[in-house]
TrEMBL record:
The keyword rRNA-binding does not apply. This is Response regulator transcription factor. The modification 4-aspartylphosphate is found at residue 60. It comes from Bradyrhizobium jicamae. The lineage of its organism: Bacteria, Pseudomonadati, Pseudomonadota, Alphaproteobacteria, Hyphomicrobiales. Residues 8-125 form the Response regulatory domain. Keywords: DNA-binding, Phosphoprotein, Transcription, Transcription regulation.
Length: 218
């Protein structure tokens, strides 16, 4: 993204006061955001996504007509280049898991400071994960709870990784440490550490938890 290019942001929120407040505060953040007309429910979010083609949608989850998770799925099916960030008052494990599984790139609460929201938007636009380590860990726990301990058995081969790196990625998703991976694959722990660093760089994530989330949800 060019420095002169503004990020087009759509706010999907059924409470007008909150929607307008976020829009006003975001517009003041270094003037690098262009706020398009906000949506009052999930159906309107889908309609406005088609009309305005935003780079980012700040998506509430509990909205009339169509909820935020269903709207996320429908928007990303039609406009896969759109980046969706959940902004909600709810942080239960099942909602976090459903939102990220639907394609949301980040999950924020409505009491998050505006500068953090702005920073998350910029991070997502730069291809980085917007999931905090705590949220990512909860998603991984929920995924394992729902799918069972052998979640990695059907893990697809990741393009761009070598056969050995894919093998190590599978063991990371199983929750194994570098020591355990080394013992299982007959590799020195330092060698495993180098492989993990390479995998993190190739997958553009910051830590093992984010790596596991990306591997099993995308």
């Amino acid at each position: 993204m060019s420095r002169d290019e503004k990020v087009r942001v759509l706010i999907a929120e059924d409470q007008a006061l909150i929607r307008d407040g976020i829009a006003t505060l975001l517009a003041q953040q270094n003037h690098d955001f262009e706020i398009v007309p906000g949506a009052a429910d999930g159906e309107q979010a889908i309609e406005f996504a088609r009309r305005y083609r935003p780079d980012i949608i700040l998506m509430d989850l509990q909205m009339p007509r169509v909820d935020g998770i269903a709207a996320t799925r429908r928007i990303l099916r039609e406009l896969p280049q759109t980046n969706i960030i959940v902004l909600t008052t709810f942080e239960t494990n099942d909602l976090i898991f459903e939102a990220v599984s639907a394609g949301a790139k980040a999950y924020l609460l409505k009491d998050t400071r505006i500068d953090v929201i702005a920073a998350t938007i910029r991070a997502v636009m730069n291809g980085q994960s917007g999931l905090s380590p705590g949220v990512a860990a909860r998603i991984l726990d929920e995924f394992k709870r729902l799918r069972g301990p052998r979640v990695s058995a059907k893990l697809p081969v990741r393009d761009g990784l070598t056969a050995r790196e894919n093998e190590i990625l599978t063991l990371i998703v199983e929750g194994k440490s570098n020591t355990e991976i080394g013992e299982q694959l007959h590799l020195a722990e330092g060698t495993v550490k180098n492989y993990v660093s390479a995998i993190l760089e190739k997958c553009q994530v910051k830590n093992r938890t984010e790596l596991a989330i990306k591997a099993i949800t995308y």
